[in-house]
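Slide 14.
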Amino acid sequence: MSPRALKPLPPAATDPARIRNFCIIAHIDHGKSTLADRMLQITGVVSDRDMRAQYLDRMDIERERGITIKSQAVRMPWQVAGDTFALNMIDTPGHVDFTYEVSRSLAACEGAILLVDAAQGIEAQTLANLYLALENDLEIIPVLNKIDLPAADPDKYARELAQLIGGDPDDVLRVSGKTGMGVEELLDRVVERIPAPVGVKDAPARAMIFDSVYDSYRGVVTYVRMVDGQLNPRERIQMMSTRATHDILEIGVSSPEPSPSKGLGVGEVGYLITGVKDVRQSKVGDTVTSAAKPATQALPGYTDPLPMVFSGIYPIDGSDYPDLREALDKLKLSDAALQYEPETSVALGFGFRCGFLGLLHLEIITERLRREFDLDLITTAPSVPYQVTTEDKKTVTVTNPSEYPTGAKIAEVLEPIVNASILAPKDYVGAIMELCQQRRGTMKSMDYLGEDRVELKYTLPLGEIVFDFFDQLKSKTQGYASLDYEPAGEAPGDLVKVDILLQGETVDAFSAIVHKDKAYAYGTMMATRLRELIPRQQFEVPIQAAIGARIIARENIRAMRKDVLAKCYGGDITRKRKLLEKQKEGKKRMKMVGRVEVPQEAFIAALSGDVEAKKDKK
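Slide 15: predicted structure.
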């Protein structure tokens, strides 16, 4: 704790001129949470006794993986030249799948600390987050972290950073989140450079909801950034989009634990608790105003994020369906980017088709559903949305292979395209270009950011990168490459739907939309996999992969044979032949009327092993 730190500020409305709102933006694993830990210690809001690594990461899954998933706001006191300032800091995620969290945090701030690892330099997500901050007209403070590492080269990366954002390499601050070196100078720079929030004190209250979480005891906890006016305890408030009104039961600031206050004024960041249990009544991006003296114009909200990857989530036990619906409602509150709607599958029963921002997002949501709500789930293979136009000019949006039009001639299939930016050392350019060409990529540009770092820009089909593209990229570049991508519209693709048939019947859960060149590989992979997973029946079962009416791959599950001759010892051969003929007739009849029940474990194994199997094929 620094001698310039104070006891936490008295929880009351503070003079806007003494408030600084800022966030920390960086690529994943560049030390945001560690730097935030040192700030909490140096400003004295967390005592050394209570301190733990990744203090602001509240979820077990965040701490286990060492990544930030949820943005966290915290208020810290800091003294400069005898004046006390309130620093409202938001620690943001670094992974591309959680860019929506970052964009909401940026809208609640006036400045951003751009953090770069002094041993790794600028990465793809660093650039993406920097451009987001510049779009929001934020004051950028460039900082090099991890300068205590033996591999650190601060002079080289300070020149890179200064070249990127304009300025002098000497202006780039050098800190160590681990040891605390340079953190006090950084806090001084925040006070000096980041502008104070601007708002009208006497205007009707307007506050932007930038985040919310669900507390099982207290209901919805809403995090707001005050823009105009003031909100006080016990005041009646109104949500401007839904017109719903509530009483404020508690209002306060996070420091970093919730501290009730006497109200929130212009520029302050804090939380509201209204006792609302319905999660749909507290929408991220909504404007909160006073019910007695409401504002006439809402604040500009956030653009809704577009799901990039779709997957079906089904409970293994059908009776858990209502619990799954309630769990998704609660998760939607703390993760506004999650989208879902009910769907049914012949094979899997009732479930939900969910939209995610990427594969990590999908993985985190399913893991949270299992841990926090104790649900056993099956997730279908991820897919992306396609626009399918038939020859009679009907256009269908397909997020699930079962929605793909059948029985009609397909005129055109549009698939989503992304602009991908890959940063890597120049030695790996050849391997990256080869991988992108395999995935139907088109190169747009290649720029050298320094002596040995290259930025490659490609246009790629989203369906080609949502599975294992990032893993392949990392393995081909020994972990040095970084990837960022953003939607770039749609383009026509030579795509087909591959169906998997058991005993001549389509199993919708195993269908997939793939590029024509990869259809055979997918069909043989799924047929081989199912032959190993489905138990043998009393009759032979054909497993077929088909495009429309054309079979492209086939495997057979051999029939189990009962030894009908066991009771025949000795005697005439005609007796044995008669028994064998009878068995043959029975098998034939059974094959005509028999149904193949796919056990639950086979579904789980076939669907969860889908990605790995694709890797094996490649």
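Speaker note: The mean pLDDT is 78.
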